[in-house]
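Subject: sequence -> structure tokens, single chain

Hey, anyone have a minute? Need the predicted structure for the following. Not urgent.
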Amino acid sequence: MSEKSNGVNAATETRLWVGGLSPEVTEEELGKRFHLFGTVLDIEIIRDTLDSNLCRGFGYVTLHARAGDLAKCLKVCP
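Reply:
Had a minute. Here:
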């Protein structure tokens, strides 16, 4: 199946905010969850740098994905 020439189904780079993360979450764990929706380009977990280096409960995942794949992601991970 070919891409639509008008770019509606073209893949784009998108940075998603991800909340509700456990304090012990790793970049590898997030990558495993989000690779189903596109190519994971970057993962940034916001950590407590003063004390424990544990996750502060949120982070960002940058994906290269089609709009339809991102819509699926948002349905599975609201």
